[in-house]
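ZP: hey, is the ribulose-1,5-diphosphate complex queued? I don't see it on the tracker
AM: it wasn't, my bad. submitting now with these inputs:
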Amino acid sequence: MTEDSSERVVAAVDDTAADIASMEIRGAATIADAAAGALAAQAAASSASEPAAFEAELKAAARRLYETRPTAVSLPNALRFVLWDMEGETVDALRESVLESARSFREDLADAQDRLGRIGANRLRDGDVVMTHCHSTDALSCVKAALDQGKDVSAVVKETRPRKQGHITAEQLREWGVPVTLVVDNAARRYLEDVDHVLVGADSIAADGSVVNKIGTSGLAVNARDRGVPIMVAAQTIKLHPGTLTGHTVEIENRDETEVLADAERERITGGDPDDPEFAVENPAFDVTPPRYVDAIVTEHGQFPPESVVTLMRELFGTDVGQPWE
Ligand code: RUB
């Protein structure tokens, strides 16, 4: 609960926010889906008796969710879509509008991923090998659609330090019967010789076509370009960052250093001084791949060269999106 009783945030919102922050819920599309679900839970459980109090609660819930992870734009985009549609003269009407927009947002999200997958699958030929980085449900939907089209696909899966989300990718691909070779991140260049595509997702795509994704994506893309392997980014349009149209930059999340180095390891390196001022660990979660290293951005609206996503962004978002939870 927030302190101000006119802005009660229900436990489901607090729990979702905590799960997003701790990465129990992770991956841009999954975060967006959970955030819309949490707003619906807030609307359903609200005990507000006045429309203004109901709206204040929804905005407080959106703020709570917004503050959890800064890089994936799908989170604020999900909050925008749901709050934009909040309308009505009574609490019941407002509630109904939020429940309906959250439901249709989540449905569209799943549908967009399926459509994107079918488009991405057209780039994959029978017998192709893809190299993956991290765990992206958008990227995996392309593989799934290719399998559904009867193509054989195999994968070289990068472990993806520090949290090893590559293991989730490997598990999913094995469930679908895809042969997987798991490699440490440092082995990527060696294995690029054996692959036909680098296939990754995105957390945010900027107006100039830069792709923000899990740390290590940009190095992989540079190596892939050097080896002549095409780089395909699978990203629904909720990954387009409308703020970059008006000069905002994408904030890169820095996570806790214990994800990189356990306390005992740190102690060993610093000779037992936990606060050694001469020793630092940094843990940026994402990096930026410039558009010149990306061959195609595959969305539910088709595939685009990175430099042209700006047109799509203007069409879908206009130029002034605002923050309806403020
Ligand atoms: C996940 C990550 C994924 C994108 C796309 O990072 O970088 O590639 O979020 O995922 P984290 P999806 O594990 O830090 O959330 O395609 O599922 O939206």
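AM: back. The mean pLDDT is 95.
ZP: great, adding it to the tracker
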